[in-house]
Specification:
Layout (H helix, E strand, L loop, with lengths): L6 H14 L1 E6 L3 E5 L5 E5 L5 E5 L1 H11 L3 H10 L1 H14 L3 E7 L2 E7 L7 H14 L3 E8 L4 E15 L2 E11 L7 E9 L4 E4 L5 E3 L12 E2 L4 H20 L3 H15 L7 H12 L3 H14 L4 H12 L5 H15 L3 H8 L3
Parallel strand pairs: 4-6
Antiparallel strand pairs: 1-5, 1-13, 2-3, 3-4, 5-6, 7-8, 8-9, 9-10, 10-11, 10-12
Helix pairs in contact: 3-4, 5-6, 8-9, 9-10, 10-11
């Protein structure tokens, strides 16, 4: 499993960000977008006291998506003709006026969202869940990270373990993730941690999630907005459900079921051409050339040409990926391979 930051560093960063972040409900006609050289842009709230924020890559993409500007064309303007990009964006801000939630932090516009976006922030989620983790016998945070778009906390229960094969021991755990910027819901997903190689397998189909959708926000135009008492009460009730889900995430019966699925996978041979199987997997799940090469290398060196061997090759490759978000997606891909239906697995297993 890819290692991130320490839990203490994560907690300190969440606390600082909770104090520094600001949210604004804005009419797009009161926004001014300016694109500059080198792909840099800023967005300004045209209020009595204008405020400007740098626009990060993720927010650029949200603006393009919302305005219906194709990504390739948006990126080409951003690189080669920033003045044209500014004209395009500002024209559509005026022609299609609407209220949007602009989330900012440290002078950066980090999200451009619907006015119905339900704010469930990382500090709130972590504050609700970390005490529950400390109550679980032998629970250990083995990896955590705060990326530009998401927070991750990955936990293993050292007490709950079984063998897939003799000497191949796995332990039960879960992954808690959340996005403050519209990149995903609050999610609690089962994690299977393989001791022999420190691989983490996430099983997304078995998880719980909560989308960031609520009633429309209300505020004076271009003013900072804060959580009201009604939303706070609703969120408190939801976070109690998250706490209950975390307590059940290392359920022994559920873990035994997942291990049985892995045992079955160990008996399902990859009988075709391993190279073709990896190529087909790469095409279907948009693996890069480096990622597919890593999967093939670990499959061959592992010498386990089965469904279990293939999913372990994918999760082992995740440890070599620089980006933590992408590494987590590969851990989820391992879980997807485990749960492929008979038809999909056969297509992979007999690829010639």
């Amino acid at each position: 499993m890819k290692q991130g930051t320490s839990l203490n560093t994560l907690a300190a960063t969440l606390l600082r960000q909770a104090q520094a972040k600001r949210d604004y409900l804005v009419d797009t006609r009161a926004l001014r977008f300016e694109a500059g050289a080198g792909g840099e842009s800023k967005i300004t709230l045209m209020a009595e006291e204008p405020e400007s924020f740098q626009v990060n890559d993720f927010t650029h993409r949200q603006i393009a998506d919302r305005l219906g500007i194709p990504a390739r064309y948006f990126d080409m303007m951003r690189e080669k003709n920033p003045e044209l990009l500014g004209t395009n964006v500002n024209s559509w801000f005026a022609a299609k006026p609407e209220k949007r939630l602009l989330r900012t932090l440290d002078g950066e516009a980090r999200a451009f969202l619907s006015d119905r976006y339900r704010r469930m922030d990382n500090a709130e989620v972590a504050e609700a869940v970390l005490p529950i983790i400390s109550e679980l016998p032998e629970a250990e945070v083995i990896s955590c990270e705060l990326t530009q778009t998401k927070m991750y906390i990955k936990v293993v229960n050292r007490r709950l373990q079984l063998d897939v094969r003799p000497g191949d021991t796995v332990q039960a755990g879960f992954v808690l993730s959340n996005s403050e910027v519209g990149a995903g819901s609050v999610r609690v997903e089962p994690l299977v941690f393989r001791l022999v190689c420190s691989n983490g397998l996430i099983v997304p189909d078995y998880g719980q999630k909560r989308y960031h959708v609520g009633r429309a926000l209300e505020a004076e135009e271009s003013q900072a907005i804060y959580r009201d008492e009604t939303l706070a009460a609703d969120d408190a009730a939801f976070l109690m459900k998250v706490q209950d889900t975390v307590r059940l995430a290392v359920d022994q019966a559920k873990f035994a079921h997942l291990v049985n699925r892995l045992r079955d996978a160990a008996g399902e041979p990859l009988s075709g051409n391993p190279v073709s199987a990896v190529e087909l997997l790469a095409n279907r799940h948009s693996l890069t050339q480096d990622e597919s090469g890593g999967v093939l290398r670990h499959l061959v060196t592992g010498g386990d040409f089965s469904r279990y061997g293939l999913l372990n090759a994918v999760t082992r490759t995740s440890q070599e990926v620089a980006d933590y978000d992408r590494a987590t997606e590969l851990e989820r891909l391992g879980g997807k391979i485990m749960t492929l239906d008979t038809k999909e697995w056969r297509e992979l297993s007999v690829a010639a």
